[in-house]
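Hello,

Our lab assistant flagged a job as stuck in the queue for most of the afternoon. It eventually completed. Since we weren't sure the result was trustworthy after the delay, we are filing this so someone can double-check. Below is the sequence as submitted and the structure that was eventually returned. Let us know if re-running is recommended.
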Amino acid sequence: MTTETEMESIQLFSLASRQAEWLSVRQTVISGNIANANTPGFRAKDVAPFDAVLQNTQLPMKATNPLHFTNSTTESYMVEQKVNEGSATQLSGNSVELADEMMKQGSIKRDYDLNAAVVKAFNKMILMTVRKG
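-- returned structure --
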């Protein structure tokens, strides 16, 4: 039977949990953008990319080839950073572009579905090895 210390060495679950948390935060921020689409002076926000979050965690990523992961100089993880800086601002001063926000929501959904599918498959694989062992 798998012990708790053996499960700690499997970082996939920790990584998936961290990404799910990041996706939740991003969904909240994007939903706030959509909710404030008609608020005068509101500036659209987003979160730092997930690879930037990984740079600041205790989960070191391993690569079998030096080209698999590259070091990025992305700023540290920020819950909300301004986006759409280069896009046209409406007369009201609002910078929310609903089409862009809806595309971001679709991307969040796809990323969440992929995250859940990978965790489910990995969990099933572990359970199969425990039952055989």
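-- support follow-up --
The delay was a queue issue, not a problem with the job. The result is valid. Strands lie at 45-46, 81-82. The CA atoms of residues 11 and 59 lie 8 Å apart.
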